[in-house]
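Forum: Protein Structure Q&A
Topic: Joint prediction for protein chains with partners

I've read a bunch of threads here and the consensus seems to be that you should model interacting components together rather than docking separate models afterwards. I'd like to see that in practice. Below is the full input, 694 residues plus whatever partners are listed. Could one of the regulars post the assembled result?
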Amino acid sequence: MREDLGVLAWGRAHRGRHVVADPAVRADAGPAARETAKAGGSTLAHGLGRSYGDSGLNLGGGLVRMAGLDRLIAFDRETGLLRADAGISLDALLKVTVPAGWFLPVTPGTKFVTLGGALANDVHGKNHHLAGSFGRHVTRFGLWRSDRGEAGAEIECSPGENANLFALTIGGLGLTGIVTWIEFRLERIPSSHLYVENIPVDGLDAFFDLAERSLDWPFTVAWVDTLARGDRLGRGIFSRASWAEGGGFTAHSGGGPRMPIDAPGGLLNSVTVGAFNRLYRARPGARFQGRQHYDPFFYPLDRLRDWNRMYGPRGFYQWQCAVPVDSMREATRTLLDTVAASGDASFLAVLKTFGDVPSPGILSFPMPGATLALDFANRGQETLSLLARLDRVVAEVGGRLYPAKDGRLPQAMFRAGFPRWSDLEAVRDPILMSSFWRRMTEEA
Amino acid sequence: MAAKSRILVLGATSAIAERWCRLRAAAGDSLLLVGRDGERLAAIADDLRARGAGNVLTATEDLADTGGADGRFTAWVQTLGGVDIVLLAYGTLGDQPEAQRDTAALLKGIQANFTSAVVWCELAGRALELAGAGTLVALSSVAGDRGRRTNYAYGAAKAGLSAYLEGMAHRFAGSEVTVICVKPGFVVTPMTAHIDGRGGPLWATPEQVAEDIQKAIEKRKPQIYTRWFWFFVMLIIRNLPRPLFNRMKI
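Posted by a regular:
Agreed with the consensus. Here's the joint model:
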């Protein structure tokens, strides 16, 4: 256990001190939580630090870094049922499961997250409209609670056992206990490749129409040019894919180049992003149709490790909302209008429709409708006020924001979006806390 | 890695050993894991099985204790049904000031890092010679390349181990038995968790070291530095003139 000033969230806009411990075996996770909580007042399990804001941090307090718990426990190659330590990365898992013909049932846009992080944020992927969120595929997990027994103990949670904790841990932001292991069902794949169709779309209506016509495609997503205005608002590239037959099972290989240093602040501005957007739409890949390996399709940004350093030393804010199906077209239009009018370009803008497959998680983020993810270089107050304007659009239609992406969400907006937040607070492990949760629960 | 190998791992809970075992598990090899912490060995064994290893067995024993070494080693080989590769990976970094103060601590470190290690290496040499082929890989350290004030108790034991392995490699030269001395530099493992500046440019991950070990086995190299640049770092340190060396706090 020692002090660490270097723990950062992916957005790099929050910095501070933690008392960290690095357990190497599952049995040490609970004691590590107790020790760090004793030294820091409270503690939190931390994975690979891909949450953007402060939901994975406990600034000034303790942190149990889980990445050393990276072992498989059991993998049934016939049924695809897999059990593993909570600290194992999706990257490491895929290297084992893909050669055996199995893939993650749901994957977020980076493979550098832990299983525990995937559970705590109930992550979603390009197949949400058919497969739901990650939590729907989880059969059970181990949860260490500090208030069980004399020195804390592990319990098993499943839909049939400790069902309330099961439902509140999925999407529970790591606050219900230390998740030590997770069992879930993999998806069988016919090969490690997908058949992909990239289709340029001229505007928002074209996007939603195409999304509706593509509902039987397992994977859909769109990239949106946030600088397009007026008739062209929502212009972008719609991408849909399904697993392809034949060609074998090749796992991805090791990392690509790293972003070695912080880029100068202001590198990503409306001029450079505008140029990028024009090139991105004009490149041959914008109309690509054919076979593609899963790695570039699901994880395009993993190729440039530490890409978050592009935003310079002040970091950036990511903002992701979900809006309900009845108002999704209008709300998305208003949101994109607001961004375009601000003149602040979002380098990465991703739009996807969510389906109505329910999650077992009580605080799960997705809802039937659409989700829009944006990110903005941290320009201080200017950025924060743009985000506040976007918040209002979402609040008006009864939508919500994604805690994993957040670093400044107002308390009232969070509580409105997740009305059952107090259920989570009621079962929160007394020694666990995050910077995010402190903001959401402290009395004004 | 065509044919399946039978592998004896001495000190299997070492981070480097575990990462190397994962590479071998993916190839379907069988392993016997020896170490002190039975619970941890069981967790590692589960992991290796799930990754596709053949037979994975464990033996909870203190390797620094050489009592009955011959019989114990023979039993391990019998349990495995023969042996193709022996990896010796245990060791203790110890605390230099403590070794200077406390004779028992000094002897304990020498027993763990040198005396017991060469006993197992010799027994492995015998078993591989009898089998007519095979590989012994042992983790030494760059610390053995020159005695330095900050860790010469550890360094001297590793220097002795390196010399022993060099002698064994000499003895088996031209035969089908390979002896490999691995000299890691800084590695991010629980053994080094207390060192400041961990994770800097000179630091390797256990995965990288495991891959270097695997390459050394495939190419039958008698000695490797890992990462490779430690060869040059140690070349410089070994050749620093004494007046300059004496001024350094390394």
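The first strand of chain A starts at residue 2 and ends at 4.
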